[in-house]
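So, does this match?
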Amino acid sequence: MTESIVPLDAPPTGVPPLTNTAEGLGRAIELLGRGEGPVAADSERASGFRYHVRAELVQLFRRGSGIVLIDARAVPDLGAVSQALRGVEWVFHAASQDLPCLRECGIWPDSIFDTELASRLLGQPRVGLAAVVARTLGLGLAKEHSAKDWSRRPLPESWLNYAALDVAVLLDVRDVLERELAQAGKLGIARAEAAATLAAPGPAPRVEPWRRTTGRHSLKDPLQLAVVRSLWQARDRLAAKRDIFAGRILPDAAIVAAAAALPRSRADLVKIPPFNGRRQVKLANYWWAAVDEALRLPAAELPSPRGPNRETLPPVRQWHRRHLAAAERMAQVRAGLAALSESQQIPVENLMQPDLVRSVVFDAPAEVAQAMAAGGARGWQIEAVAPLVAEAIRAHPD
């Protein structure tokens, strides 16, 4: 890292005006089209404030064009931006966080470069944007506005300055990292991983998401779990309708407290904190209806404490009880991956997806490479990891 870090308080070209009209978007697209080379991209979301986690602000920077800040709440369809930049590489820091919400806006990059991923592949211990900018450029990048409510309007000038800085330096970071990857013989790996990130499908809907309620594991009685489920679903409907983060409407702790108490009337419910608070008392009838619905369920419709049946592997820590050979294989593979990670300076989780490693080790297929390819592993990952797993299968057959 550079010995002295120079604070970067504002973009060199200043903060551009916010693009928040169709006419302004047209001018921004024309400006971007006159630029050269890759386009740096970032987005700001209102996570923790809004139910619908969409892009609130989109930041773009291209050499020869300057910075463009787009109010994605006012101008939600950015498909024309994507069309104007066909064939251009998009540069992100942690692309998997930005791509889903940008696709909702109509932005579908053809290719990407991920500076966070590149830093991981280079074995860097700190891969946050500020740390990467400090190491590669010797610049200090403040991150004080990252957790703000970006759905707020108007956006304060200091927030826009912060957002503009994120893309102002990204292309220079990309160039440094590309050289380092080439010197380390990892540029092809980085390109393969970026392509995989771009091609990855969105996350599948969670099975029974109410089971992720914080504190739910302290409850074992099916009737208590039914109350958790009913209150969680009622809260989710209200949060979606109001576009408010669910935890701001009713905290998980309140849901668990109500389920543990099993109130038998509305009066009993409003005695439980925070249902006795001013805001929740106004919704007391709504919450009680959810609790009452759960209490009236027949036994056959109550949720199981163990959750739905799923075709998943048992936890690795339990393999030694009934799957001793698989446990021995896993121990050998873990040791091999740790050594490979150290020698290659690549984190274990980037050598191959941990879930896929566990699955192949447990199943012990005759053709390890084919099984890994079917599970989505990239060629370089198979070349590095398949021999370790094959060796463990030979040493510890079922």
Q: What stands out?
A: The chain has a mean pLDDT of 95. The radius of gyration is 25 Å. DSSP finds 20 helices and eight strands in the chain.
